[in-house]
Amino acid sequence: MNEVFIMEKEIWRFIDSGNCSPAFNMALDEALLDWHSEGRIPPIIRFYGWDPATLSIGYFQKVEKEIDLDAVKAHGLGFVRRPTGGRGVLHEHELTYSVIVSEDHPEMPKTVTEAYRVISEGILKGFHHLGLEAYFAVPKTDEEKSALKNPRSAVCFDAPSWYELVVEGRKVAGSAQTRQKGVILQHGSILLDLDEDKLFSLFKYSNERVKERMKSAFKNKAIAINEISPRRISLDEAKEAFYKGFAEGLNIELQSYELNEEELAYVNKIAKERYKNDEWNFKR
Fold first, then answer.
1. Counting Cβ atoms within 10 Å, is residue 162 exposed (0-12), middle (13-18) or buried (19+)?
2. Is 156 a catalytic residue?
3. How many angstroms separate the CA atoms of 69 and 87, rounded?
4. Which end of the chain is more exposed for a tag (fewer CB within 10 A), N or C?
């Protein structure tokens, strides 16, 4: 008689925190990283949105040099610096996700790019659930590889990176990763729709010609789901697809998690002390 061994799937937590303020969003990602590093919670996947729509910038960006804050204000956007690298992202018509998992998790490769590839398998599967032919593009030429090391543009989505997720040759999800306290935090944007004019109005350029050149280059490289999907995809539909995608791609089971009052207070404290703080957001 053949015995069949059914492997128990690892259980991760799942939070859909809905639309939150920019400071709360970044603070919650940081808090989850803290709690996971202390062993208080298992690995966790989170979906979220932004209220108001927000420009987030990478940890290393220089605001004065790169960002047109008057335009940010004129559009009524929130503004926050992420704890992760990368460049400016307009969070508006999108599903934002974060994944928090220990660096020494048995399924996590040691290098950033390989870990990114494993985590992004969940996003890849999510696109497949939406009926889109997504795949990973690996930079092949030396030129492409060196472009990764020397990002000239302030706009996150026009830089291809290792294992870029693409549909029809154009980038469909932008992600950034940081590692702190032995924990990987990867978060990113899955674009449903994109207002390119608004996006490009938020950055500083040496002149109009440079702006137009970057804009047309961007059009060839990045795309929102609803520009390529044969039918309109709603946020709820996207959530369902990527929820399934992460469970499948990472071979895990997801269980909902609710923050208690004490945890919420901790998140709000980080939001106030760091992500609402001008010192953090503007001084680099």
1. middle
2. yes
3. 15
4. N
Q: What is the pLDDT of residue 162?
A: 55
Rounded distance between C-alpha atoms, residue 203 and residue 210, angstroms: 11
Q: What does the domain layout of the chain look like in residue ranges?
A: 12-282
Q: Which pLDDT belongs to residue 111?
A: 86
* Edge-first strand listing for the sheet containing 10-20: 173-180, 183-191, 94-102, 44-50, 10-20, 252-256
Q: Which fold has domain 12-282?
A: BirA Bifunctional Protein; domain 2 (3.30.930)
- Helix (H) / strand (E) containing 258: none
- Read off the pLDDT of each residue in 36-44 and give the average, rounded to a whole number: 98
Computed from CA positions of residues 241, 244, 246, 250, in that sequence, does the dihedral angle turn out positive or negative? negative
Residue 261 has pLDDT above 90, yes or no: yes
3-state SS string for 35-81: HHHCCCCCCEEEEEEECCCEEEECCCCCHHHHECHHHHHHCCCEEEE
pTM: 0.89
> DSSP secondary-structure letter at 156?
G
Task: Please say whether the beta carbons of 16 and 259 come within 8 A.
Answer: no
The helix/strand/coil state of 135 is: strand
Angle between the 261-270 and 22-37 helix axes, to the nearest 10 degrees? 120
Indicate which residue of 57, 63, 118, 156 is catalytic: 156
Residues of the chain above pLDDT 70, percent: 88
Distances (CA, A) of 62 to 67, 88, 152, 173, 210: 8, 11, 13, 23, 19
The answer to whether 112 touches 243, Cβ cutoff 8 Å, is no
Lowest mean pLDDT among 29-33, 89-93, 166-170, 253-257: 166-170
Q: Is the pLDDT of residue 184 over 60?
A: yes
Distance of alpha carbon 240 from alpha carbon 93, whole angstroms: 16
Q: How far apart are CA 168 and CA 176, in angstroms?
A: 22
